Amino acid sequence: MTTFHTILLLLAAVLAVFWEAAFPGTSRWLRAQVDLLPALMVYASLCLGLPATALLAVCGGVMFDSLSANPLGVSILPLFATGFLIHLRRELILRDQPFAQFVLGLAASALAPLLTVLWLLTAGRTPLLGWGSLWQWLVMSVAGGIATPIIFLMFGWCERLLGHRRAVESSFRSDREIRRGPS
Q1: pLDDT tens, position by position, for the chain (183 residues)?
Q2: Which domain holds residue 29?
Q3: pTM of the model
Q4: Residue 86, in any domain of the structure
Q5: DSSP at 167
Q6: Which of 48, 52, 47, 34 lies closest to 112, judged by CA?
Q7: In angstroms, how far is the first alpha carbon of the chain from the final one?
Q8: Is residue 97 part of a domain?
């Protein structure tokens, strides 16, 4: 799309990561951390191009890892893989339907943590896994599914409020007569 959309997306990623780190009330109440980056990846991969998706994966992954216990850069590849898989089939996805947005957000929020844990195990790290991890994964997946249609609504609202509409010019004039038959 435009640079404006990419800047707005990166600003949303900064706010999402800052919200996760600065306001732990939600994670204490639900006993799980809510991650909004996969929901933003769904929006980026459906509505923006692949460069914006890659930029969100890199910037969002580094910001998320710098404020968490993850090794720096471990979230980049799972976020990009999630966004890339959606981007491959974006012509076939009903991107304007809230139910499709919910299902994609649920799937992306479930896939990104699984890929991150797989990446950590492959790298020889030992993440803290237990029965509580299953609860955290479920809460994170459902919260990402719920957040995705809200993110689509917020970006649509920002686009209508701050963006500009293209002027549609037509060669057809309503006051023009078409003469038929012999002249």
Answers
A1: 578 889 999 999 999 999 888 887 777 777 788 889 999 999 999 999 899 999 999 999 999 999 888 888 899 999 999 999 999 988 888 888 999 999 999 999 999 999 999 998 998 888 878 888 899 899 999 999 999 999 999 999 988 888 777 777 766 666 666 677 776
A2: 3-162
A3: 0.84
A4: yes
A5: P
A6: 34
A7: 49
A8: yes
